[in-house]
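Dock iron/sulfur cluster; give full complex structure.
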Amino acid sequence: MRRNFEITMKLVEMQSLLEFYNKTEIHGYCLSCPDHNRNWSCPTHDFNEYEYLKKYKYAYIISGKIIINKNLNENEIIKKFENERRIFSDLLIDEEQYHNDSIALIAGNCYKCDRCTKLDGKECILKDEMRYSLESLGLKVSDILKEILNQQILWIKETTPEYLITVGAILLYEKDDLVLINGR
Ligand code: SF4
């Protein structure tokens, strides 16, 4: 699948990433999301997010910058962003196969099924394939981007943003070079 985003990444120790953990604040934002409680990858979780993250020793923080054509209208921008964030997230999930016991944190909520079973009060049907996002685990993405990758999130407001950014991570038990994401 063709990538229409520019990758930036940095490897950090888990302890550095956990400095951005603030579950109370981040999950507070989730309460006002229109998709709140509609997808199993989103909070509230039945496990301790901090402990989930702390198991790993390292994290590649990875962003994908999507340049936005200023002639696109808002709906077209959203469609483009949604398409690219899935390609970006698939790439992160595909990278897992090269690193023992690694796990990808995708950009945004899980998109594996056309309709998440949470909407019908049923269990997730693809538990092995479902992935969480940084936000979903209580991490403040805007600060991570700024402090670790030296990048800034732009939003769709009155004017067309120059770019939009998707953010994810690969969590590792040992230091390793990335394979697919590096384009090798
Ligand atoms: S795999 Fe399907 S059921 Fe599970 S969280 Fe994702 S969309 Fe929902």
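Observed: The longest helix spans residues 74-95.
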